[in-house]
């Protein structure tokens, strides 16, 4: 059985396929199952169908451990922002829902903060700036600059990220959690974990606990969740309207105040 979807813009099918294949490589290192690509061409992506299952504590524990192993599966020295090997040449990374994808940056850096500010936050904040107040823009700019300073890098290595790991992109099958629809790149592992917490996930505490047991998180990671949610919240503000403004601005303030 397979699932086929059309993509707009057409090259999004190739971008998504490259991301899925790149994440799937980590299955050999004990990473979580990833939906298999059957065929990809401009405007059309065919995937293995994921049968529906019920999340259980056991499946959540397995997912947390597997996610840590996936994150840890990149070679030493990988730069932040690196894309899957077969990401289509000349096509920028894409982020957002299928009907509202927008381009983000593709340059790479040895600092997570510089990468995240320039290649993720800047494309969103530039679009937001045309229809938000100067005061709100100032709050967001201060948070962006704090992240760009590198103070929050923590010497963490680049991780193999899903890149949009909200609950809707974690499917529960009879064999456990399966990942779909990534914005795959080399980034900071706390970003994936922060997105998992944005809209809830079954047995989330078990997932995070198992992750920490497998690859212990750096002290204070809970306090840095707003830092890593900022881009995703700002993108939701841009795409879905001002109902996301309060959460975005609060995350920005906490990013500035984090010590």
Structure description:
The chain has 259 residues and is of the alpha+beta class. 42% of the residues lie in helices and 13% in strands. It contains 8 helices and 9 strands. A 3-stranded antiparallel β-sheet has the order 1-3-2, covered by helices on one side. Helix 3 packs antiparallel against helix 4 and helix 4 (134-148) packs across helix 8. It is globular. The relative contact order is 0.17.
Major sheet strand order: 1-3-2
Beginning-to-end CA distance, first to last residue: 51 Å
Separate helix tally: 8
DSSP helix fraction:
40-55%
- Assembly state (oligomeric): single chain
Rounded mean pLDDT score: 97
The percentage of residues in β strands lies in 5-15%
Shape: globular
Low-confidence stretches: none
* H and E order: EHEEHEEHHEEEEHHHH
Which class of secondary structure composition applies to the elements? Answer: alpha+beta
């Amino acid at each position: 059985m397979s699932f086929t979807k059309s993509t707009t813009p057409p090259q999004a099918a190739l971008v998504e396929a490259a991301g899925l294949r790149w994440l799937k490589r980590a299955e050999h290192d004990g990473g979580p199952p990833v939906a298999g690509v059957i065929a990809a061409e401009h405007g059309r992506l065919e995937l293995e169908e994921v049968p529906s299952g019920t999340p259980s504590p056991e499946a959540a524990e397995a997912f947390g451990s597997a996610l840590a192993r996936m994150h840890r599966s990149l070679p030493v020295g990988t730069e932040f922002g690196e894309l899957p090997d077969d990401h289509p040449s000349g096509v920028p990374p894409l982020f957002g829902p299928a009907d509202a994808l927008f381009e983000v940056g593709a340059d790479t850096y040895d600092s997570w903060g510089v990468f995240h500010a320039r290649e993720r936050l800047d494309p969103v904040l530039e679009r937001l700036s045309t229809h938000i107040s100067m005061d709100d823009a100032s709050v967001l700019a201060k948070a962006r600059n704090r992240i760009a300073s590198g103070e929050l890098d923590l010497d963490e290595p680049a991780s193999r990220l899903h890149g949009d790991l909200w609950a809707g992109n974690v499917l529960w099958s009879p064999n456990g959690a399966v990942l779909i629809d990534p914005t795959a790149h080399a980034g900071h592992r706390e970003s994936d974990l922060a997105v998992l917490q944005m809209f809830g996930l079954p047995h989330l505490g078990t997932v995070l606990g198992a992750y920490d047991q497998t690859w212990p998180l750096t002290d204070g990671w809970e306090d840095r969740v707003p830092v890593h949610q900022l881009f995703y919240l700002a993108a939701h503000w841009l795409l879905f309207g001002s109902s996301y403004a309060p959460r975005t601005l609060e995350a920005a303030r906490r990013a500035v105040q984090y010590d």
